[in-house]
Amino acid sequence: MDTWYVIDRPGRQHGPLSHSDAAKTIQSGIPSGAFGPESEIWHQSFGATWKTIATSEFAHLLGQPSPPRGPSGSPPYQAPHTRPTIGEAVIAAVTTKYATFSGRARRSEYWCFILFWMIFYFVAAVVDAIIGSIVVVTLLLTLALLLPGLAVTVRRLHDTGKSGWWILIYLVPIVGPFVMIVFLCIDSQPGDNVYGPNPKAQIA
């Protein structure tokens, strides 16, 4: 299967896509600025590396010549795709990936999001106690982080190869939350799956 993934400027991941669908996705997003030369693209033949559109065979869609191939048909330069730090991953979860349910999230990204949520929840509770607002600040924080919390949970399930609909197991009394915790602790599914490339993959 010819599998492509592209990441637009807001940080949304598109894929899996065929070669023609990847070209159409990039071309349709260029006028609005969703895709640019630095936007990243991945194909199963790249292994653990990503390219930018400007260094890929889709460069012509940007009005740029495609990069020349090296001697003996060797592929052109592949821009490395390095893993973001935990802090960057958490910031992305509440900014560019605020409502992104596609793609994958490794364990450290999910559990650090939960840790930061608990810290901010504690601070909000203290502020509520100081200003005597009962739960106003805490409630606002909960509402603000509800959507990114659901999104990062779905991406964590995707990372283990499970559908995001498994999040509904939370609704099963007593047993559901414990099963969900086990799912969230499972390591990333090796390699790429139907939800995207392995977020733990990086150049050695």
Offer a quick outline of the entry.
The chain is α+β, with helices and mostly antiparallel strands and about 200 residues long. The protein has helices at about 20-30, 85-95, 105-130, 135-160, 175-185; strands spanning about 5, 15, 40-45, 50.
What is this structure's SSE topology?
Blueprint: E1 4-7, E2 13-17, H1 19-29, E3 40-43, E4 51-52, H2 86-93, H3 107-131, H4 136-159, H5 175-185
Antiparallel strand pairs: 1-2, 1-3, 3-4
Key features of this structure:
204 residues; 39% helix; four-stranded antiparallel sheet; alpha+beta; 4 strands
In the predicted model, the low-confidence regions spanning at least 5 consecutive residues are: 68-81
Report helical residue fraction: 25-40%
How would you classify the helix and strand content by structural class? alpha+beta
**Overall number of domains:** 2
* Cα Rg: 20 Å
What does this structure look like?
This protein is α+β, with helices and mostly antiparallel strands and 204 residues long. The chain has 2 domains: 4-73, no CATH class; 86-185, no CATH class. It has helices at 19-29, 86-93, 107-131, 136-159, 175-185, and strands spanning 4-7, 13-17, 40-43, 51-52. A 4-stranded antiparallel sheet has the order 2-1-3-4, with helices on one face. The longest helix is centred in the middle third of the chain and has 25 residues, at 107-131. The radius of gyration is 20 Å and the shape is globular.
